[in-house]
Specification:
The protein is of the alpha/beta class and about 290 residues long. The chain has ten helices and nine strands. The chain has a domain at about 100-160: Orthogonal Bundle (DNA polymerase, domain 1). Helix 5 (about 140-145) crosses helix 6 (about 155-160). The two termini are about 20 Å apart.
Length: about 290
């Protein structure tokens, strides 16, 4: 059984539309797929319609969610996967909108730093890389840099210019992870921290921060992820077992431009059942 609980579309910084993502997931033989665009529920309707009207008659199940951008008191970027929440819970949606607004200001500042270094890129060129009102993110800037010939791929753009330790990197407003957990759970959903020890992409958080989040009501940990080393996976698995947390594995698929492939890491069906049971209602989308 293939269960992938972390993917992105053009509703944020992925390159596949929600409909195309559903097509690809069904072709890949995925049984349970989570749509988790950054700070938005914008792709939910298209993905739901695509699944229910899919010509294959697939029995794939769709888990609707969002990857919530957060940062701790030290300014460390933390991503929280909110799954199975009620999209009509206003406080959570308002927090998404606040974060999305600040992403625009942050993008302008990053572009200014690049321009000061002699790298020719404009805000208009970045906007041209996103679809509609998709959540603006660094991958759109990466695509603009590719289009201008500054780099050959998204990965190269991040490796050279856009990684968290880059001199061009700038944080944007985002809620604390404790607030994100509270809002997700108030909305009836479940909270899973995404790639917490992703040393391969520079997003490692402190162990004491992780313990704080567990005490704040964290439901699960994304253990199996491309950006985790074997040692980091072992450490996270130990922590999950010690605190009786759900263990997930996910692709963090974004489409073209990143190496991540659908279902390259998956979640054990038992752990998925545990996670779904923690939501306050059965919200998995089925045909």
């Amino acid at each position: 059984m293939l269960i992938d609980l972390h993917t992105h579309t053009t509703a944020s910084d992925g390159t596949d539309s929600p409909r195309v993502l559903i097509d690809k997931a069904i072709s890949r033989g995925i049984d349970v797929l989570a749509l988790t665009d950054h700070d938005t529920v914008g792709g939910w309707e298209e993905a739901t319609t695509a699944l229910k009207k899919h010509p294959s008659g697939s029995n794939m199940e769709l888990v609707l969610g969002s990857e919530v951008s957060c940062q701790d008191e030290d300014g460390t970027s933390i991503h929280m996967l909110g799954l199975l929440f009620d999209p009509n819970y206003t406080p959570l949606i308002e927090e998404f909108e606040k974060t999305r607004e600040h992403r625009v200001t942050r993008m302008s500042r990053i572009i200014a730093r690049l321009n000061e270094a002699g790298i020719d890129i404009t805000m208009e060129e970045v906007y041209a890389q996103r679809r509609g009102d998709a959540t603006l993110g660094r991958p759109h800037l990466a695509d603009a840099l590719v289009a201008k010939g500054h780099v050959a791929s998204r990965d190269e753009a991040f490796n050279i210019f856009l990684h968290n330790g880059s001199k061009y990197y700038i944080n944007h407003y985002s809620p604390s992870p404790e607030l994100a957990i509270r809002l997700i759970k108030e909305a009836g959903g479940v909270a899973v921290i995404a790639h917490p020890l992703a040393s391969r992409s520079g997003r490692t958080i402190k162990s004491e921060t992780l313990l704080k989040l567990i005490n704040a009501g964290l439901d699960g940990i994304e253990v199996d992820h491309r950006d985790h080393s074997e040692q980091e996976r072992s450490e996270l698995l130990r922590l999950a077992i010690e605190h009786d947390l759900v263990v997930t594995g996910s692709s963090d698929y974004h489409g073209t431009g990143k190496l991540n492939q659908l279902a390259e890491f998956t979640t054990n069906p038992h752990h998925w059942e545990r996670l779904e049971a923690k939501a306050n209602a059965r919200r998995v989308v089925k045909r």
